[in-house]
Design brief:
The protein contains 13 helices and 18 strands. The protein has 412 residues and is an alpha/beta fold. The chain folds into two domains: 260 residues, Type I PLP-dependent aspartate aminotransferase-like (Major domain) (Aspartate Aminotransferase, domain 2); 120 residues, Alpha-Beta Complex (Aspartate Aminotransferase, domain 1). The strands form five sheets. A seven-stranded mixed sheet has the order 4-10-9-8-7-5-6, sandwiched between helices. Strands 13, 14, 15, 17 and 18 form a five-stranded antiparallel sheet that branches. Helix 1 packs antiparallel against helix 9. It starts with 11 loop residues before the first strand and ends with a helix. The structure holds 4'-deoxy-4'-aminopyridoxal-5'-phosphate. The site of 4'-deoxy-4'-aminopyridoxal-5'-phosphate has 15 residues, from helix 3.
Amino acid sequence: MNRADFPILKETVHGRPLVYLDNAATSQKPQVVMDAITEAYTHWNSNIHRGVHHLSQVATMKHEEARQAVADFIGAKSSDEIVFTKGTTDSLNALAFSFGEAFIREGDEIIVSAVEHHSNIVPWQMLCERKKAVLRHIPLHEDLTLDIEAFKGLLSEKTKLISVAHVSNVLGTINPVEEIIRIAHERNIPVCIDGAQSVPHRAIDVQALDCDFLAFSGHKMYGPTGIGVLYGKREWLELLPPHEGGGEMINHVRWSGTTYNELPYKFEAGTPNFVGSYALHQAINYMQSIGMDAIEAHERDLTEYCEERMKEENERMKEEGVQVHVYAASQPKAGVISFNVFSRQDLIHPFDIGTLLDQQGIAVRTGHHCAEPLIDELGVPGTVRVSFGLYNDRADIDAFIAALEKTIRILC
Ligand code: PMP
């Protein structure tokens, strides 16, 4: 699928053609996105919103068109509900601070899940520490899916917010966010979805999903680094105070006090990343030209094919006392597979596997994937993770499996 649009895929690594399977960490960029950045700085770079001159008006228009494109992309009611941030982490920190200031008191509870990335844990822990509130998490079944009955048991009148990942960046499992939102809303509890691993890979409609907040990163969806989004329902955003002060987010500043700007600007203090928003807009156009359903189907095919090939590899290696263990095996997944290799019950360190794969041109990620509580629960120091993007193909997986077999033969 359109590999030629991504110049970096022609690179060689250690003399081997690059096979890039680290898309959950960040995606590569199509030429149109890189061209957009050059175009912005070459033709219309100027600070936005405050200028009467031509360049400033062009830059303002491009930034606001990008906001509308994001709103349309996720099915938001209005572009006022789209706050540009630096990325998912920034979005979740902004929400934790702002929501915390407005709504969290001593003894209140916030619920996340056992599979969260640190960026959907630590901001809530910091808030809980500040407010003497309590952070709870939805536990896992043995098959590594979320225990929804246990989740229901966690809910009480103390629960003020639920924040869960749509797709686990370690396991690739798709959490039942529709069900979580429905259950939470029966009790009027708002829900934030960490969409870092879902928005780049499947069509998301925030109105159909009915989530109250959604956070995601541009760099994981073929856009540039340093730009991301916090979506919030207007009713909520209007109730929340700004999390940062400065230019742009104000209406009037007097020594006697300050009044804040309207949505979404009250959450965008300082000069925004208007080049990033423009490039993100081009990334969205690029994904839409392929179609989100086509991207999802393509990546599902790759995931199923890869799991199948890994199962075969496991069978092949069994007689030699080697196990290739895929976590949450055969659960529906969105483009992410984590595994470990055991030789006669002993874990082969994921770092060693990743290093030898790298020497064969295969880029994977190893370690705790910024989800230490989940990794602790798996009882290992880390995993090896392969993750797919729209440009990957079955040949990439064949190359990975061949390199994995070689690696196992060296290490086991
Ligand atoms: N949440 C999830 C599920 C993620 O996978 C990531 C990135 N690995 C993040 C949050 C953080 O994203 P960023 O580093 O772009 O802020």
